[in-house]
Amino acid sequence: MAENSLAAYYAAVAEIYEDKYLEPDLDEDAEAAAEHVSEALANHEVLELGCGTGYWTEAIAENAKSVLATDINPIMLEIAQEREFVLENVEFAELDWLNPELPEGRRFTACFGGGVWSHIKREDYTKVFKHLRQTLGAGGFVVLVDDNFVEDFTPPTARTDAEGNTYQMRQLPDGSRMEVLKNFPSDSFLKKKFSAVARDVRLSRNEFFWMLTCVLK
User: Fold this and answer.
1) Helix locations, 62-103, DSSP H
2) Where is the Methyltransferase domain positioned along the sequence (predicted)?
3) Among 185, 182, 102, 166, which Cα is nearest to 137's?
4) Could you tell me if 209 and 203 are in contact, meaning their C-beta atoms sit under 8 angstroms apart?
5) Region 16-20 average pLDDT
6) Percent of the chain topping pLDDT 70
7) Which residue in 52, 156, 41 sits closest to 33, CA to CA?
8) What's the CA gap between 37 and 84, in Å, rounded?
9) Domains of the chain by range and CATH?
10) pLDDT in tens, 111-161
11) How far apart are CA 68 and CA 46, in angstroms?
């Protein structure tokens, strides 16, 4: 699925995006994950990829030294900047995580992605790892949070492509449907991929979310 199609999907659901965090049980898991993210990124200069409406940005900003919250979608950024939490340590910028053009001279010690890794094709992992390494350098800290597949909650997989990427059919507010790339990597798959480029790879899961932290080699 093309990147612009993914952006189009999130533009269409921007106004209702955070409704997912109000779902019973998921809300508690999301709060627990947000607390862990906040603690993990304390005192870091953070580049956030795919900040969306700013749900995770709010948690990061509590303890981080600085946050550059980025998204490819201007509508998402507008919503994020309207949140009451926005503090002096948070800036926003439009950015494509697959082809990042970062502010010249800006330094980051950590990168965070909430809900973005599941939208990266397996064949693009090497490309994204390269961007992370160029952005953070050796010793850079990476924190990812994403969705687990939860029976009777997660939309079913509509198809799987030749590379093993899975896709869902999502309904939009206007009643139309759109295909969305959504991968659910196993623990062994994630650990194998990240261990090739990072050390101290740690992975944990609650019912609705997985969280991975690592230090780039």
Assistant:
1) 74-81
2) 46-140
3) 102
4) no
5) 91
6) 98
7) 41
8) 20
9) 3-150+184-216 (3.40.50.150)
10) 999 999 999 999 999 999 999 999 999 999 999 999 999 999 999 999 999
11) 6
